[in-house]
Amino acid sequence: MRIASFNINGVKARLPRLLEWLEETRPTVACLQEIKSQDEGFPVEEFEKIGYKAIWYGQKSFNGVAILADGVEPVEVQRGLPGDPDDEQSRYLEADVNGVRIACIYLPNGNPQPGPKFDYKLAWMARLRARMTELWTQEIPAIVLGDFNVIPEDKDVWSPKAMASDALMQPESRDAYAQLLGDGWTDAIDTLNPRGGVWTYWDYQAGAWQRDHGFRIDHLLLSPELADRMKATGVDKDYRGREKASDHAPVWVEITG
């Protein structure tokens, strides 16, 4: 079973690339972020044509998440991250697929920092931890994956100095992420690539892709019940280099069963 995540940066703008990736790699589950589409505009028919069922949580022009499953309907569990009834941003979607709880997230960027956007990021991470604790106590196979907008350690960025003032690398952001791992969740990519140097994002500016000036912000966090079944993990880096690509590359984990 392959579970993947892809910040697509506009589902309509990148639809040819997205369909290409789905057909070429055929993940069992594909979580999407930044679909940037209202619910009624989501191109579900295009996914159904190639055998994928989908649920989605859209928002006009910004944010938006979706869960696609190969040949089966994702069973929705939670739409929106609990803990703040006034939060209207579409950043969290949770479903069951083939006996696995899938939580697709698009964590706030937080820039510029300091300021209200960074405060929102940290508050959102606290709410995420609370929800992940609830999942933990259920003792079910679970994965929380997506664009976390956190560079966990210096080994996860091409130049720590270049990103030092960014919200993605602030001590508060890193500490909040480290707390999730401290709670017992397994960072799949880091576990199998402990030396770092694995990027999932390359900016469109300053020739970042051509110079391999990237960093790792797309993560796959596994509960103990799922971590025991992990076989492999990786980044579909080549898709970042294709025409009209997203600025993120897809990430994935293979589990047994």
TrEMBL record:
GO terms for molecular function: double-stranded DNA 3'-5' DNA exonuclease activity; metal ion binding. Its EC number is 3.1.11.2. The record marks H248 as: Interaction with DNA substrate. GO terms for biological process: DNA repair. Its cofactor is Mg(2+); Mn(2+). Residues 4-248 form the Endonuclease/exonuclease/phosphatase domain. The record marks D218 as: Important for catalytic activity. It is an enzyme of class 3 (hydrolase). Keywords: Hydrolase, Magnesium, Manganese, Metal-binding. The record marks N149 as: Transition state stabilizer. This is Exodeoxyribonuclease III. It comes from Qipengyuania algicida. The lineage of its organism: Bacteria, Pseudomonadati, Pseudomonadota, Alphaproteobacteria, Sphingomonadales.
